[in-house]
Amino acid sequence: MVKNFRQSVLLVLVIISVSFHFSEQLQSSQVQTLLRIQHLLNSPAILSSWNDDTDFCNTEPSLSLTVVCYDESVTQLHIIGNKKIPPLPKNFSIDSFFTTLVRIPSLKVLTLVSLGLWGPLPGKISRLSSLEILNMSSNFLFGSIPQEISSLTNLQTLILDDNMFNGKLPDWLISLSVLSVLSLKKNSLNGTFPESLGSLNNLRILALSDNHFSGEVPDLSSLTNLQVLDLENNSLGPQFPRLGVKIVTLVLSKNKFSAGIPDKVSSYYQLQKLDISFNRFVAPFPPSILALPSITYLSIAGNRFTGMLFKNQSCNSELEFVDFSSNLLTGKLPNCFESNSKKTAVLYAGNCLSTGEKNQHPFSFCRNEALAVGILPHRRKPERESRLGLALSISGGIIGGVVLVSLAFVIFRRVHLKQTRGRTLPRLIAENASTGYNSKLLSDARYISQAMKLGALGIPAYRAFSLEELEQATDNFDTSTFLDEGSHGQMYRGHLKDGSVVAIRCMKMKRRHGTQSFMHHIELISKLRHWHLVSALGHCFECYLDDSSVSRLFLVFEYVRNGTLRSWLSERRGRRTLTWAQRISAAIGVAKGIQFLHTGIVPSIFSNNLKITDVVLDQNFVAKISSYNLPFVAESLGKVGLQISSGGSKELDNKRVRHDEKSDIYDFGLILLEIIVGRPFNSMNEVGSVRDQLQKIATADNAARKSIVDPAIHNAYSDESLKTMMEICSRCLLNNPEDRPSIEDVLWNLQFAAQVQEAWRGDSQSSDGSPVLHFQPPRRQINLQ
Ligand SMILES: *[C@@H]1O[C@H](CO)[C@@H](O)[C@H](O)[C@H]1NC(C)=O
Ligand SMILES: *[C@@H]1O[C@H](CO)[C@@H](O)[C@H](O)[C@H]1NC(C)=O
Ligand SMILES: *[C@@H]1O[C@H](CO)[C@@H](O)[C@H](O)[C@H]1NC(C)=O
Ligand SMILES: *[C@@H]1O[C@H](CO)[C@@H](O)[C@H](O)[C@H]1NC(C)=O
Ligand SMILES: *[C@@H]1O[C@H](CO)[C@@H](O)[C@H](O)[C@H]1NC(C)=O
C-alpha cells in the first residue's frame, strides 16, 4: 500500500517536472534559500552538485534528490541522505534550519530523510501552510510532535518514522481532516491512543509500530478507508481492535492482545496479511481465517490458541505463508497447504498436532494447558477481584520464581526435619492420608523393580493445574495448610481431589511477564521426574486481568514425608536407624538419581552440589534427591550448570563436562561416607584423613573395618559388602577429579555390595522385610568387578 502510494507520488512528481521542465526559472530568493539549506545540512554528499549556477528546477530528479518547481517556486523538495548518517554536528540548529526552510512557503511535498537532523521539531513548520506530504524519517528529532502541525490543514501524509519523538499520540490530529497516512513507527511515543483517532475518516494507513503505546485501541470501525493498521511491538490490548471491513494489512504482533479473534474478522474480504503473533491470545483459533478470500500471509505464532485442525480444511489458494508455531493446536495439518497453487510455507512447531514429528508436544500437554487456562466450553473461570485466575501453564524462569524452586526443596527438607524432631507444625498431616501412589505396591520389591524398568514413577503425569484446583486442595490457601515460608514465597500442603498429598510452592511475580516467557523453563522442569528425584508434578499460573501477565506462579511437587537421609543416620536422636541393606539401597537411589541427571535428560545437569540433607526418604525408604541443580537456577545465578554443547573446542567442552560430572561424584562420596560411618564430617581435612583410612582398611582385616563403621549397625552387615562400599567411597573422594570413578562404576559396585549383603542376610538371618533389594544387577556387571 505504502509502496503504491509512493509510486503515485513519484509519478505525479515526474509528470509535474516533465511538463515544466524547460519553462521554470526559480526565484533568486529561493535559490539562496536552497544553498543556505545545503550549508546548514553541513553540505552532505548528496547535495554536492548544488552551487550558485545550478538550475534547480531543471535538474534530473533522482531517487535521493529531487526539486520540483511551479510558477518560479519550489513545490517539492526531496533530499534523502545516507541511511547510517550520524547526527549533524553541535553547531547545527534545527531552529535556524526551519527558519530557512519556511522561506519556501510554496512547498507541498517535503522529504528530508536520513540527514542527521536533530532537535525538537520547531512549531514554525506550520508556516509551510501548503504542505501536503511530509516525510522526515530516520533523523534524530525528539520531544513531542508540535501542536502547530495541527494548523497544516492540507496535510495528507505525515511520516516521522525512526526518530526519537516521545510523549503521547496527540489528540489534535483530529484537526488534520484530510490526513490519509499517519506513520510514526520506531519512536518513543507512549500512553494511550486518543479516542479522536477513530474520527480521522480519511485515514488509509496508520503505522505506529515500535513505540511504547499501551491500553486499548479505540474503536476504528468508522475509519472505512483504513487499509493498513500496523501496531507491532507496543503494549496494546487486551481487546482486539474494532475495524472497518476494508482492512488489507493488519499487524498486531508483539503486544498484549488476549481477548479472542472477533467473528467480524471473517468478513474482512480484502485482508491479505494478518499478523497477530506473540500476543497473549488465549482463545480458540477460527480456521475459517485460512479461507478468507484475499489472505496470503497469516501468523498466529507465540500465543495460546487452541482448537483442532482438520485435513479437509479449505484455504485460500493464494496463501503463501502460515505460522502456527507455539500454540495449543491439535489435529492434523490441512491438506490445502500442499495442494494450493502457491504451496503455502507452513511453520507449526510447538503445538500438539499429530504430524508424527518431534517438534510437537504430546496431545495431553495441549489439552491440559487448554483446561488450565479455562478456555474450553463450560470451563470458563469466574473473575476474581481485579484478577482473572488464569491458571496458565508453562512457567518458570524469572529469577525470583526460580530461585524459589530450589528454596522449595530446601523447605521440604526443613519440614521433614521439623517433623522428625517431633515439633508440631500447624496441623500436621493426618497419619493415614493417602499418598500420591499406592504404598502397598511399593512394598512389593519385585513389582517396583519392574515398574522402574518400565520407567513408571508411580506419580501422575506432569500437568498444568488450574487455580481452582489448588485453592480447593489448600482450602483457599488456608493458614492450616501453610507449611513454611522462604524468602521467595510460601509452601502449602495440598490434598488433591484424588486423595494425593502435594506440596505447593506459591511465588509472587514482581516483574510482569507473560506466560510465554516461562514456557522454556517449565518444559525443563517437567522433564525432571525420576523415581529418585523429588519430582515436580505440575504448575499453575495466576494472571493479572488487565494485561494477563503472571501474578503468581505455583509449582506442585511430590510430598515426600519421611525425613532426610541424615535424620535417619547421624541425627536420629534415639530413633532406630537404617539397616545396612537400607543404607546400600539409599546409596543406590542417590546414585541412580545422579545418573539420571547426568544421562537421563537433555540437556544434562551437572554440578548439583548435593548434600546428604538434600536426600529425603519416602515412607518406604526410597531415597530421592530434592535439591538438584535446576537449570534456570543455574542460569539466573550465572553458574555453569547446564552443559549444552556449544561452539568452541569440543575437547575443552568434554573436559569440563567430565569435571562437572566428577564434582557430583565427590559429593556422592561424602554422602556415602556418612552412610558408612554414621556421623557428619565438617572439614575437608577430616574427610581426607578418613578417606585415606578407608583406603587402607578396605584391604585390611574385618576388625579394622568394624572400628570405623557406624556402631549402630552392630554386626548386621556382610563384611564383603562393607569392604566394597568403603573401597568405592574412598575412590569417590579422591582429590583429582579424573581419578574418581564414573557414576556407572559407582552403581555397579553398590549393586554388587547389595547383592552380597542380600546373600549374606539370606544365609545368616531372616529378612527384616524392608524393600531394599529392588536392584538385581545383571551378572555381567558383577563379573566386571
Ligand atoms: C559547523 O562547524 C563546521 C566545522 O566544525 C563547519 O565546517 C560548518 O560550516 C559549521 N556549520 C554551520 C552550519 O555553521
Ligand atoms: C519516507 O521517505 C523515505 C525515502 O524516500 C522512504 O524510504 C520511506 O518509505 C518514506 N516513508 C513512507 C512511510 O512512505
Ligand atoms: C511517557 O513517557 C514519559 C517520558 O518520555 C514519562 O514521563 C511518562 O510517565 C510516560 N507515560 C506513560 C503513561 O508511560
Ligand atoms: C520494540 O520497540 C522498541 C522501541 O519502542 C525497540 O527498542 C525494540 O527493539 C523493539 N523490539 C522488537 C522486537 O522489534
Ligand atoms: C472435515 O472432517 C471432519 C472430520 O474429520 C468433519 O467433522 C467435518 O465435517 C469435515 N468438514 C468438511 C467441511 O468437510
Walk me through what this model shows.
It is a single chain. Among the domains are: 17-155, Ribonuclease Inhibitor (Leucine-rich repeat, LRR (right-handed beta-alpha superhelix)), CATH 3.80.10.10; 422-559, Phosphorylase Kinase, domain 1 (2-Layer Sandwich). The N and C termini lie far apart (77 Å). The chain is 29% helix and 17% strand. With 785 residues, the protein is of the alpha/beta class. The strands form five sheets. It has a 13-stranded mixed β-sheet, with helices on one face. Strands 24, 25, 26, 27, 28, 29, 30 and 31 form an eight-stranded mixed β-sheet that branches. A six-stranded parallel β-sheet has the order 4-6-8-10-12-14, with no helix packed on it. It binds 2-acetamido-2-deoxy-beta-D-glucopyranose (5 copies). One 2-acetamido-2-deoxy-beta-D-glucopyranose binds at residues 2, 6, 80, 111, 113, 135, 137, 159, 183. It is a single-pass type I membrane protein. One of its GO terms (cellular component) is membrane. Residues 761-785 are annotated as: Disordered.
